[in-house]
Design brief:
mainly alpha, disordered N terminus, 142 residues, single chain
């Protein structure tokens, strides 16, 4: 067992009981908990990074130091941006849980499936629609 991120270690994958409905209240509570953990982790990351950036914001006199500091900053900001986008996606996912849309593909409406949601709790497409999307993106990129 390698090092696992804190949020995944604490919550074991959901084991549905025999005959249990897909996206039962227990399943929804399970995924809500995973998402809440992820959101807390991301918020901590952002806070930590902001502190680091404030501490490092001392202006270096040496231009080469400054250049490397600016590229570090740019990288930090890109990471923060990604984390903020993920938090937004998590918030949108909470809305889906509340409205009963969670766990179903937003394109074709079929069940996304517990295994896929365990791996990616914010998934909003079934694997087939996701794959088609990626193929389309590749074709567009050409």
């Amino acid at each position: 067992m390698g090092m696992q991120s804190e949020s995944h270690k604490t919550i074991a994958p959901y084991e549905p009981k025999t005959g249990e409905d897909y996206m039962s209240p227990e399943q929804l509570a399970h995924f809500r908990k995973i998402l809440e953990n992820q959101k807390t982790e991301l918020s901590k990351e952002i806070d930590r990074a902001v502190h680091v950036m404030q501490e490092e914001a001392t202006i270096f006199a040496d231009p080469s130091d400054r250049a490397s500091q600016e590229s570090d900053m740019a990288l930090e900001l890109r990471n923060r941006d990604r984390e903020r986008k993920l938090i937004k996606k998590i918030d949108e996912t909470f809305v889906k849980i509340d409205t009963g849309e969670y766990g179903y593909c937003e394109k074709c409406g079929i069940e996304i499936g517990l295994k896929r949601l365990e791996a990616r709790p914010t998934a909003s497409l079934c694997i087939d629609c996701k794959t088609l999307d990626e193929i389309r993106e590749k074709q567009m990129a050409k």
